[in-house]
Amino acid sequence: MLFLLWILAVILVVGGIVQLFRGQLLFGIVLIIVGLLVGPGGVSIFSK
Description:
Blueprint: H1 2-21, H2 25-38
């Protein structure tokens, strides 16, 4: 499960960075923040 959360977080953050380069600033920032929240490290919403 931890590995799947890590993969999901990486996909969300990379997708957010791609959206930033495409000009979708708000959507890119939201994806990056959600990716950081879902990720197993740091501030994970699933670790509490």
